[in-house]
Amino acid sequence: MITEALPRILEIWEHGDTLLPKEGLNCPSEISYDQGLGRSYFNCQPHLWQCYWEGGVVEFPLIKIDIFGQTFHVAARGSFPSVPAYSEKERFYQMIKRPGSGINLSYGFVVDLEVREIPGLSQPLILADTCRDTYLPQRIYGLGSAPKRKEDEFLWDNFGRDLFIDRFYVSNQQVNEWRLLTGEMSRIVSDRKLWYQPAILSQFEQRKYCSYFGKHVLEAKYFDAASMAPVDQKDSMPSKIAYPQTPWQRDLSKSFLGLARINPDYQLSPLDCQLAQVEGCTSHRFFTTDSASWMGMNFPLGFYPESLPNTVDPKKNLKLSSKFLPASSEWHELGRRTNWNGEQGSETPPVAFRCYEEVVL
Amino acid sequence: MIYLLLIFSSLLQAEVPLYWTSAFSIEERHEFYKDNEIIASPKNAWQVLFGVVYPDSRLNLHKDCVLYRVPGDELGMLKIKKISQSQSCESILFNDGDVTWKEIKSLQFSTANHTIQLNMTMPKYKAESWNVKLVNLSQKKPPHTELSSAEYKSPKMILLAPGTELAKFAPKFKLKDGDLCHKVSDDCIAEASNCGDCSNGWYEAPNGCMTGPKYCGSQECGKKNATACRRGMKFQRSVKKFGCRDGDISFAYCSPGLRMQCIGTEAWCR
Fold this sequence. Notes:
- The complex is a heterodimer.
- Chain A contains seven helices and 13 strands.
- In chain A, strands 1, 2, 3, 4 and 5 form a five-stranded antiparallel beta sheet that branches. Chain A has a four-stranded antiparallel beta sheet with strand order 6-9-13-10.
- Helix content of chain A is 17%, strand content 15%.
- The radius of gyration of chain A is 22 Å and the shape is globular.
- A five-stranded antiparallel beta sheet of chain B has the order 2-3-4-5-6, with no helix packed on it. In chain B, strands 1-9-8-7 form a four-stranded mixed beta sheet. A three-stranded antiparallel beta sheet of chain B has the order 11-13-12, with no helix packed on it.
- β5 (122-127) of chain A pairs antiparallel with β10 of chain B, so a sheet runs across the interface.
């Protein structure tokens, strides 16, 4: 019977953004809708799952199933202990990390379903985080800006490798789940307004976070591959590699960034700020897909400086293009990077990060 | 009419194990029995029909062996015996079952289309019919943009066997940092990967094969005394023989100022 409810369960989990009521969510200890927040935050979002089954989205969170003329009601159960850092209420999910042998899933969210008309029976299941990352197609790629000389070009390929890149920066909410799993309760970020914002960790901790989940901090060459749209996506071994200067236009001089460089009075439009969140944009939106690259990675230019370990040129490990620099800054260009010492400081802009995973089956 | 009613009333919806819905794989399926064919030979002999592998709520994998004694001198018998996934059903063929069905006149089964179907008839027009949809089994999708790593590796949701108390998950990782988790021989034959058993991820030592051996840990490639970074074998655009010692070493690289050194066939940076 529960299997009949699974498509709806999956919808609630994967497409939480479609559940948001106009009047807002009614569970302030878990999640709230904020103007600076893109809808992607609500997909595969354990706090929205908690909010939904606590009754903060709809008054009676029950899934109706009709079988042979009889109506049954499926619901999630609060089978898991409360997390005082979140709230005193029992939890409707528990994040787990596990060895990948047998079931090839290293982490996920365990939930417990019940049929209200059949007390005493429940069905546990694991929900996978299917919203987090996206696949980098196998092809030949270049690194950095367009080389001046052919011999300076660094080509590489990922044939035979299944690489998946996080769509967004790792958030404080995701790092909180990690802290819970590793028993570092005292380091949980409790301010709900910060949960959807990028986690600002040292390079050392960024590495620890990603490797805990079998991932790595996104490398510079993978970032370039994910940001620079190929000329012909069907030709995986092109004779010439393109080095576009922005994710949406090959030639930067024709984009708003190019216009801002030559015109000091350039006025940013809302569309400009959707493409790249730079200094002067009035609102900064987290988890929005307005600036998605050709393969689905968001924020390839602007928004936050990003940590990008660089194995080819280790001193160029920071994407500086961000909301802290004006549109006229020459750092707003794909392939341009500077050096970061790996520490976050109060004097320097915060540095975000994301992970990638290579899947070996 | 009465005859038909008798048949329908005795068509019992079976006491099929509830948790089979959570099955993760079907193993040891009998290689000769075709789907939905009545099993008639070898007479009087116990046969493994199939094993159903499913996770419990602690995520341990178990296997239900479905064993059948084909009718001959006596009527047939079906038994189910629960073992751990690492055991084989063949090894417990003659053990008592946890559940047994006796006096079976005929039996047919199918494991096609992610569904277990099993029909058996008994004397006095009695019949049992099982039909279990295996929710956890899904077609593996080829990787493409928009596909997530989670969906590539496993189904979007995994049903666990109900009925046991939800435990606190205390994962036990068999491998420690530095352990080899994916063996690839010098002639590029790759064994199954165990890298999911590493507690802190893994790293690769490129060796000129499409995939190189892998070790547990979070080492950064290309640095001094670390493995070289893999660069690929097609960007060169011409077919070449790659190898750390004798072939073309363009498949890997080290950070500036370091040189590549071979340890066996593996490329490391010094």
